[in-house]
């Protein structure tokens, strides 16, 4: 995923946010590491390489603001850490927000993303039956990844 600084600036302005180096760097780090689920401390370590005077508290405030503005997503895995990833960028006026789900290996702890959202029919059913409009959801599957299954099967 490659998103230009200009695109980030445009997104911040559209959300009514001031464009700052900190915000741009946090978004850039998350975009460059889009396959990782990063803690605020992970983001801090990478941002401070280019912006050494930044503090961890600034990262927390920036991530919280970007989360509130729906530019980043929060993920809570079972390791006790809150993690962040850059959001899926789409125009919600013309496209539905694309959800992705997480596959978590109970053996090695690896986390993979699964991008097919098969819950749209369920969300429609919920709304028809209850009147409740689902705006977002988070789904985690727990099991055994391919590598661990192969390792287990080869060990027998």
Q: What would you note in describing this structure?
A:
There is one protein chain. With about 160 residues, the protein is an alpha+beta fold. It has 2 domains: about 1-90, Winged helix-like DNA-binding domain superfamily/Winged helix DNA-binding domain (Arc Repressor Mutant, subunit A), CATH 1.10.10; about 95-155, Ferric-uptake regulator, C-terminal dimerisarion domain (Dna Ligase, domain 1). It is built from 6 helices and 5 strands. The chain has helices spanning about 5-15, 20-30, 40-50, 55-70, 120-130, 145-155; strands at about 70-75, 80-85, 100-105, 110-115, 140-145. The strands form 2 sheets. Strands 4-3-5 form a 3-stranded mixed β-sheet, with no helix packed on it. The chain has a two-stranded antiparallel ribbon with strand order 1-2. This is Transcriptional repressor. InterPro entries: FUR, Fur_C, WH-like_DNA-bd_sf, WH_DNA-bd_sf.
Task: Describe the protein's topology.
Elements: H1 5-14, H2 21-32, H3 40-50, H4 56-68, E1 72-76, E2 82-86, E3 101-105, E4 111-114, H5 120-130, E5 140-143, H6 146-154
Parallel strand pairs: 3-5
Antiparallel strand pairs: 1-2, 3-4
Helix pairs in contact: 2-3, 2-4, 3-4
Organism: Claveliimonas bilis
Protein name: Transcriptional repressor
Keywords: DNA-binding, Repressor, Transcription, Transcription regulation, Zinc
